[in-house]
């Protein structure tokens, strides 16, 4: 028999009927479903991974960079559903112009000021909402990564929008440009 772990203190478990949910994504350690009430449940294989993610999201809850958390219990987290598309898809399907580049720069600047940009962020976890605002739907881990910004810039290069991004960055804030391109 498995030993029970006290991973959750103040939330009550919710009955989740997966047959009434729509699978919308996942990874090697979790699956994400859209629930009938237009919330998202992320179910983890390992409850410790779930708790780590919850603690990380809870620590950054003062910001509006992440979807709101409604519940956490053992293997799952219930969060706000973000209607939008990944930034990669947005760049590929829409024209990435000066306005979009500047919005992305300001989003990264806010992440940087709040010490979130130094965490393990995947570019595809940045979403563009219906109102064209950016939101971060996930963080891979709470480990500090010195190369997160480098990976983001590399992805922008792969998407052929790095020159525009750097041009706007240099015009917006030369000090930030120097810091991010060193």
TrEMBL record:
- In what residue span(s) does the FAM69 protein-kinase domain sit? 56-141
Its ancestry begins with: Bacteria, Bacillati, Bacillota, Clostridia, Eubacteriales
Q: Which Pfam families match?
A: PIP49_C (PF12260)
Q: Which organism is it from?
A: Clostridium pasteurianum BC1
Q: What is this protein called?
A: FAM69 protein-kinase domain-containing protein
């Amino acid at each position: 028999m498995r030993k029970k772990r006290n991973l959750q203190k103040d939330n009550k478990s919710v009955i989740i009927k997966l047959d009434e949910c729509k699978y919308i994504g996942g990874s090697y350690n979790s699956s994400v479903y859209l629930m009938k009430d237009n919330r998202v449940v992320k179910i983890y294989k390992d409850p410790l991974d779930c708790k780590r993610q919850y603690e990380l999201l809870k620590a950054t809850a003062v910001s509006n960079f992440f979807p709101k958390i409604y519940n956490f219990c053992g293997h799952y987290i219930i969060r706000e559903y973000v209607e939008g598309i990944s930034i990669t898809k947005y760049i590929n399907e829409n024209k990435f112009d000066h306005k979009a580049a500047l919005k992305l720069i300001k989003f990264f600047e806010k992440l940087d000021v709040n010490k979130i940009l130094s965490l393990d962020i995947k570019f595809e976890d940045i979403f563009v909402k219906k109102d064209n605002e950016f939101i971060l739907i996930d963080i891979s881990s709470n480990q500090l990564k010195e190369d997160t910004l480098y990976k983001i810039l590399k992805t922008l290069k792969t998407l052929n929008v790095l020159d525009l991004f750097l041009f706007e960055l240099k015009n917006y804030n030369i000090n930030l440009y120097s810091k991010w391109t060193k």
